[in-house]
Amino acid sequence: MDTFKLEILTPNGEIYNGEALSVVLPGKEGEFGVLAGHASLTTLLEAGVVDIEKEDKSVESIVINWGVVQVDEEKVIILVEGAAAIRGENESEIAQALDEAKKLINEVADSSSAIATVSAKIESAAQRLI
Amino acid sequence: MANLKDIQRQIKSVSNTQKTTRAMKLVSTAKLRRAEELAKRSRLYAGKMNQVIAEIAGRIDCSKVGGLDNRCFKQIENPKMVDIVFVTADKGLCGGFNIQTIKAVNKLLKEYKEKNVKVRLRGIGKKGIEYFKYNEVEMFDTVLNLSSKPDKERSDEFISTSIEDFLNEKIDGLHIVYNGYKNMITQELHVNKILPVDTKGFDCKEIQSKSTIELEAEDEEKMLDALLKKYVSFNMYYSLIDSVAAEHSARMQAMDTATNNAKEMVKSLNVQFNKARQAAITTELIEIISGVESMK
User: Fold this and answer.
1) The pTM is what?
2) Is residue B26 part of a domain?
3) Based on the structure, what is the number of domains in chain A?
């Protein structure tokens, strides 16, 4: 399977930069997935979870609060306002990342159902790691 | 020849000044490191954000897709009123840092005056505000304590007035003038035209050879508006961070020069002091010898 270049940038620096097999994004109109060779597209993202399938097939989740994505055939650039990656070496680190991610979501999402959906996704992402 | 005591006093005062300037240099160096780190991290984002906006602007300009009729992308032929936001430091003692920005603002003001365009001047930073107040240039509003401590919320609040007014067609343009950080020893003056987004310099053919733009939203206008708001407010914030880094580097340099000058001064005063001392001894010796001679 082909890979594409994926960059996720926040005002405080890069949070992800590398090759990816696929990425699932929380678009304004609903979730959508992007593979290599996707047609050009620019759209806004909502608060939610970005799932990145890396070259080694492992999945990394990054929580964002607002964003804009620019997709073209070779690369995907995501500009986000705030982001928290759910990653860590051990359980306590993951728990910490989880807290950060939840805080991020609670700050922006306006409806409790949105918070609940995203929180559930975050939890399951964390479960995968543990 | 100056009095020995006077010279001594002068030496003491100059070396005290030297101590102060050296301390200020050290403080600026420490602050610079932090500010630079912040600016560096944001630079990437700022660059990409501008790139995304520029690409959208270029494509809209070249292909006129989907009847997109956003005010932010149209070049306004006869502007009536423009906003100029300038960022200066709250404190002085940083060489030509503030005056460079002020000069650039003055140049811009003159240009618009010649074209009979009204200008709303919006100031950030005490030094620039003081200057324009003194010269009786009217300012629309001013903010203190923001340029020394950039704060996203306050910067958003400040710039939102300009965005709203632009969208409501009260103003026809927005410039941000600030002195940015280039490296430890150089600052770079930026006069950025934020709104309307500059669509010049795009090669339409190159853009059209790529696949066309697709805006995946029911309400394209709304999406562009939201994106542009973020773009403008982030640019404002980035100007502030960049300006702080530049301010500290300018101050560090100015204080370094001041310390060196003080050193030179102490050196030459010391020479003067020694000469005066020698002269005093010589006079004294002559006096003693002539006294002894006369007693013979």
Assistant:
1) 0.83
2) no
3) 1
